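User: I'm putting together a small comparison set for a docking exercise, and I want a reference complex before I start. The sequence is below, and the ligand is adenosine-5'-triphosphate. Could you produce the 3D structure with the ligand included, as structure tokens?
Assistant: Of course. I'll restate your input first, then give the structure tokens for the complex.
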Amino acid sequence: MIEILVYGAVISAIYAMLAVGFTLIFGVARILNLAHGAFYALGAYTVYALTANLHVPLLVAAAIAVVGVGLFGVAVERVLVRPLRRSQLAVLMITLSVGLMVEQVLLLTFGSEARNVPSMVEGAYEILGADISAQRLLALAASIVILAGLWLFMQHTRLGSAILAISQDAEAARYMGIPSDRIYSIVMGISAGIAAAAGVLVAPFQTVIPSMGLLPLVKAFSIVIVGGLGSIPGSILGALLLGYTETLIAFEVSIEWSQIVSVAAVLLTLVLRPAGLLGKRAAF
Amino acid sequence: MPLLEIEGLVVHYGKAIALEGVTLTVEPGELVGVLGPNGAGKTTLLKAVSRVVPASGRLSFKNRDLGPMPAHKVVGEGICHCPEGRRLFPELTVLKNLMLGAYLRDDKDGIAADLERVYGLFPVLRERRTQQASTLSGGEQQMVAIGRALMGRPSLLLLDEPSVGIAHRLKNEIFRAIRDIRDSGTAILLVEQDARSAMAVADRIYVLEHGRVTHEGTPASLADDDSIRQAYLGV
Ligand SMILES: Nc1ncnc2c1ncn2[C@@H]1O[C@H](COP(=O)(O)OP(=O)(O)OP(=O)(O)O)[C@@H](O)[C@H]1O
Ligand SMILES: [Mg+2]
């Protein structure tokens, strides 16, 4: 019981990090980013490469991974997405290609076997009789801090207001003198950086393989549909719902069945409430 | 020397032509009204000045060519646009909406002074400052929209139909504010459906029909023109 509570919290927190970034770049720039899972995988592999091959200290490697992948996100937006941003279809194809490209490069560089990333914190804690690894608790705490930091940034900085303004009325934002192209790049960077942070945090207890980004992309997309595309509170609510349902089914039934939850939730949402739980309007 | 000079301005939406060679000037501190029927191109004219729709022809402000500037640079030059339909940021508070008008500014003291000035023009906004913009009445939302544009400290304010769909009492308050803004030295280009109110405040008027300027002059001279009296003043 207590395992379900804690494991569910950890998985929900990771899902929330992925979904918030995914929904943010869609809500602001209307970019449906199919490379989002690749950013997550790149985060994990960057830490692996820096620690295993170059012997960089783990925390430094983590910071480099988050910032580096964030900058990679900026470059993808600036160079590849921006020229064709007006076409949703082109954006889908471009980001899908970037995702596949990243996966292939990881495969060619590191091979297909699973890689081990050391834990940032060792040991385990006993919580009400259940053993929970310290790394999982760290992942939970770090994602709460990151999401809270994002919220503070959005609520209390001028840049945060500008991001919210564009997502609510892009044309009006132009009348304010907000340079939308620059904001899109920044938001892509933030979104990619948060996805990388999720990858870094789970790398020690997840299988690090080149295709590791696919499932998280599907999960992020599902959560965001359930919560309402473009809605940040919706994506957090969706992450909690999905994270806990999956954990519950994994414990009580089987891991295989838990993977059906997200797909079923998406279909159910699209049929019953296309705008999602907290969405303003149907995104499709 | 005029503040804003527009010469031979042409705007297309795809194949359709919305402005066919409009020429217009605004002097510093002047309140210029633009009248015209629905679909005449009034909104398009203001959007072209803001560089939100692409246009050809000459557009110069303070003797600088606006043509090559992106929209956000135009705001930095001192042109602030209060758009048709208000277009507030609905989920943000009144105060945040106002502060976004000052997005490009860094002078803290100046911003605080301008916020006081906006509250002075529209005292109700001070009470409503922590309220979500979407919960305000139409008239109050219009006040936020005007105040938000003023927060950019414009030397030219573009106002697109500020009185449309607003109760009579609030309409008077808005026109009084428009007069105050002009009296404090800000030039205004005012698009308005309510010809009577516009002619009462404007220094000069242009009449736009089918994308062309058909009449221009002082309100008094236009009021003498029979065709204008019939079409716009209904007498
Ligand atoms: N985005 C657009 N795409 C295509 N045509 C447009 C667009 N915006 C305006 N038009 C057309 O351009 C012409 C001028 O429109 P505009 O909005 O400038 O008129 P207006 O004088 O402001 O009218 P109103 O008094 O109704 O606000 C109209 O025929 C309109 O249908
Ligand atoms: Mg109009």
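Chain A touches chain B at residues 158, 161-162, 164-165, 168-169, 171-180 (CB under 8 Å). The radius of gyration of chain A is 18 Å.
User: Thanks, that's exactly what I needed.
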